[in-house]
């Protein structure tokens, strides 16, 4: 019998909207991820993501 444990991450935060894509690529390169980005105004994005490792 084999067993394993998946690790699940979720977060919501605001950041400069021009840096969202680069931040995700550099911070989470190996994760499978669902991302939702809402551009709140000209400079701010609300980022929500869920991810897991296998």
Summarize the structure.
This protein is mostly beta strands. About 15% of the residues lie in helices and about 50% in strands. The protein has one helix at about 20-25; strands spanning about 5-15, 30-40, 45-54.
Question: How would the blueprint of this fold be written?
Answer:
Blueprint: E1 7-16, H1 20-27, E2 32-39, E3 44-53
Question: How is this structure best described in words?
Answer:
The chain has 54 residues and is mostly beta strands. It has one domain. The chain is 15% helix and 52% strand. Strands 1-3-2 form a three-stranded antiparallel sheet, with no helix packed on it. The radius of gyration is 14 Å and the shape is elongated.
Instruction: Spell out the helices and strands N to C.
Output: EHEE
Radius of gyration: 14 Å
**Count of β-strands:** 3
Oligomeric state of shown chains: single chain
> Structural class given helices, strands, pairing?
mainly beta
Low-confidence stretches: none
Helix content: 10-25%
Mean pLDDT: 84
Number of helices: 1
Instruction: Please give the alpha-carbon distance between the first and last residues.
Output: 18 Å
Strand order of the largest sheet: 1-3-2
Count of separate structural domains: 1
């Amino acid at each position: 019998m084999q067993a394993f444990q998946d690790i699940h991450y979720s977060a919501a935060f605001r950041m400069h909207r021009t840096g969202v894509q680069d931040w995700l690529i550099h911070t989470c390169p190996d994760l499978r991820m669902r991302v939702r980005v809402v551009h709140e105004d000209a400079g701010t994005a609300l980022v929500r993501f869920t991810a897991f490792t296998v």
